[in-house]
Amino acid sequence: MKLTTLFLAGTTFALSLNAHAMTHDDGKVPYEDINATVISIIGAPKTTLGQDFKYPAGQPLIKAFNIEIPVGKQTDLHKHLVPLYVYIVSGELEVDYGSKGKKIYRPGTSYVEAMNWCHIGKVAGKAPVNVIGVYLGEQTPDQIKPETCAKPN
Question: Which end of the chain has fewer surrounding CB within 10 Å, N or C?
C-alpha cells in the first residue's frame, strides 16, 4: 500500500512537470514558455484537390523554400511528384488546376499541393506572393524539382 501511494504520488508529480509538454498541440497551453499554435491544413489528410497521397519510401529528403512570385509573373505549367506542404506568408496566390478549376489562397492558409496534376500559380492581388514550400521527398531518386507539363489536366 505504501509503495503504491509513493508510486502514484511520484507519477502525479512527474506528469504535472510535463503538463505543458503534453498539452501544447491544442495551441492553448504554452510549451516551455513559447506558444505553439496549430496551423490548419486545408483538406488534410488529402491534397488540395482531395487526392490521397503517400510519403516516399526511401531515405527522406526534406527541402524548404522561401518562394516569392512578383506581381505580373507566374510559374510554368508544372506538377509535383512528391508531397509539398505550402504556407502562404503574404499576398494572394491563385492556382489554376485546369479542369479542376482555380483556387485562391490567402495569407495564413496552408495546404498540401496537388500531386501529379498540372497547374500554374500566380499573384491574384496587387502585392507579391510569399510562400513557404516544404517538399517531402526522398534521396534517390530526388524528385523535389517540379516536373514541367506540356498541357493542362
Answer: N
pTM of the model: 0.79
CA–CA dist 105, 89 (Å, integer): 10
Asked whether the bond before 141 is cis by omega within 30 degrees of 0, the reply is yes
Pair 112, 134: CB distance under 8 Å:
no
pLDDT tens, residue by residue, 66-111: 999 999 999 999 999 999 999 999 999 999 999 999 999 999 999 9
In sequence order, what are the beta bridge partners of 122? 74, 94
Distance from CA of residue 27 to its chain's centroid? 17
What is the rounded distance in angstroms from the CA atom of residue 62 to the CA atom of residue 84? 10
Question: CB–CB of 69/93 below 8 Å?
Answer: yes
C-alpha cell at 137: 521527398
